[in-house]
Amino acid sequence: QSALTQPASVSGSPGQSITISCTGTSSDVGDYNYVSWYQQHPGKAPKLIIFDVSKRPSGVSNRFSGSTSGNTASLTISGLQADDEADYYCSSYTRSTTWVFGGGTKLTVL
Amino acid sequence: QVQLVQSGSDLKKPGASVKVSCKASGYTFTDYALSWVRQAPGQGLEWMGWINTNTGNPTYAQGFTGRFVFSLDTSVSSAYLQISSLRAEDTAVYYCARGRTWFDPWGQGTLVTVSS
């Protein structure tokens, strides 16, 4: 199972919005509503920020939102803050009854 | 609060074995599956598989069969990852995470270093 495709890096200024894409296939992102997103600060464990495509866990800011279109999932962060600077990973269930992560995207807040 | 606490970092020689533990607290251990994820130095996350905490039945991702074994001790709400015949390329941080449709929370990670 190949990793989902994410841009290596994105950047934005404080207060702006950015979107991170996560492209899979009709065997994973395009076929299941089991896409989740994780935020990982350097040296820390990943943290769940979106599950089931667009749901936010309790305690996660509503500045984070998720969606899908076809085989591509997207994470949008609005009102960028300095603490949003981190690596972001998407994950999807696959038709092989396994899970696959994206390669990760480094977000830089300028 | 719900948390997973993993064992500390380990340095092993090639060919040796290692066992990483993951102790759960704050919830009923057998109510949720437990997944394992690897992160090689400077690399992304890689799903290794998951274990059914009710039946003990493991499911392994491609590339993690043979030398990798998931196990449980439900009496102490703990899961284990054992890796045998260690190779330099097994050097990584290994995470346990609750769940198998989404992963939350995650353990703090265990760095396994394989070096002679």
What would you say this structure looks like, in words?
The complex is a heterodimer of chains A (110) and B (116). With 110 residues, chain A is an all-beta fold. Chain A contains no helices and 9 strands. In chain A, the strands form 2 sheets. In chain A, strands 1, 3, 4, 7, 8 and 9 form a 6-stranded mixed beta sheet that branches. Chain A has a 3-stranded antiparallel beta sheet with strand order 2-6-5, with no helix packed on it. Chain A is globular and about 40 Å long. The mean pLDDT of chain A is 95. Chain B has 116 residues and is mainly β. In chain B, 0% of the residues lie in helices and 47% in strands. Chain B has no helices and 10 strands. Chain B is globular and about 40 Å long. The A-B interface holds A 1, 3, 34, 36, 38, 45-48, 51-52, 57, 89, 91, 93, 97-104 and B 35, 37, 44-47, 49-50, 59, 61-62, 95, 97, 100-109.
Task: Kindly list the characteristics that best describe this protein.
heterodimer; A: 110 residues; mainly beta; six-stranded mixed sheet; three-stranded antiparallel sheet; 9 strands; B: 116 residues; four-stranded antiparallel sheet; 10 strands
Given the structure, what is the number of helices of chain A?
0
Choose one word for the global shape of chain B. globular
Largest contact between chains: A-B, 23 and 23 residues
Estimate the mean pLDDT confidence of chain B.
Answer: 96
Order of helices and strands of chain B: EEEEEEEEEE
Helix content of chain A: under 10%
User: Biggest sheet of chain A, open or closed, and with what strands and sense?
Assistant: 6 strands, mixed
Q: Please give the count of helices of chain B.
A: 0
